[in-house]
Amino acid sequence: MEIQFYGVLQQVVGQSTVQLAGLPSGAQAAEVLRHLGDEYPELAEHLPRVACAQGDSLIRRDQPIDPNQALVLLPPVSGG
Amino acid sequence: MNRITEQPLDLEALLRETANDASGALVVFSGTVRDHHEGKGVSGMRYTAYEPLAEKVLLELEQETIAKFPIHTCRIVHRVGNLAVGEDSVLIVVRSAHRGDGFDAARYAIDTLKERLPVWKQDFYTDGSESYQDGTPLPGSQAADNSEKG
């Protein structure tokens, strides 16, 4: 599935989008983040402070994700 | 005007849009790019947003602020893209019958925006370096959930 990065995460990974394979169907957001941390160890220290979204909604870590939509990773925000 | 926009923010348009005869008070908050951050000179900033969620967050925050305070209107717009020192990054316009409610509502709106809006600030410094400012973890992150529980 597609993972999109925003803010500092784009710098950390060096790209704005990656494809993540090998996720079980019905995976929760937390599981996707674990896979992502294994695949991209440079992200590991950021993941506890990252929120997840799909479309215009935030998703909790224990929520199953829709594999047909990108999972969007949002680091701590600094608007204003 | 979209709530998230690459265009320079248009205060006059917001004032025209929100004008009404019942409001005796108008409070405008403007966030402006300043020329320093943590002791370093800043030459400009780049703001990025996750727009599908950011538009929704601002709409809901306007509605929430109107529900929470005795005010008539609340409009919020936030700029994205490259901004120079002195340019507005955010505008909040509140109109109310009385000034106290207007001040309270505008403060609530900007304080809450800083906790919820998926927008990121990247500073460009006068020494040629750049960095993303650290910020507030959004609800749903492990850090935010732990701090709620604590």
From TrEMBL, chain A:
It holds the Pfam family ThiS. Signal peptide: none annotated. It comes from the Bacteria. This is Molybdopterin synthase sulfur carrier subunit.
UniProtKB/TrEMBL annotation, chain B:
GO terms for biological process: Mo-molybdopterin cofactor biosynthetic process. It is an enzyme of class 2 (transferase). Its EC number is 2.8.1.12. Keywords: Molybdenum cofactor biosynthesis. Residues 128-150 are annotated as: Disordered. It holds the Pfam family MoaE. Pathway: Cofactor biosynthesis; molybdopterin biosynthesis. One of its GO terms (molecular function) is molybdopterin synthase activity. It catalyses: 2 [molybdopterin-synthase sulfur-carrier protein]-C-terminal-Gly-aminoethanethioate + cyclic pyranopterin phosphate + H2O = molybdopterin + 2 [molybdopterin-synthase sulfur-carrier protein]-C-terminal Gly-Gly + 2 H(+). Gene3D superfamilies: Molybdopterin biosynthesis MoaE subunit. Heterotetramer of 2 MoaD subunits and 2 MoaE subunits. Also stable as homodimer. The enzyme changes between these two forms during catalysis. Belongs to the MoaE family. This is Molybdopterin synthase catalytic subunit. It comes from Alkalilimnicola ehrlichii.
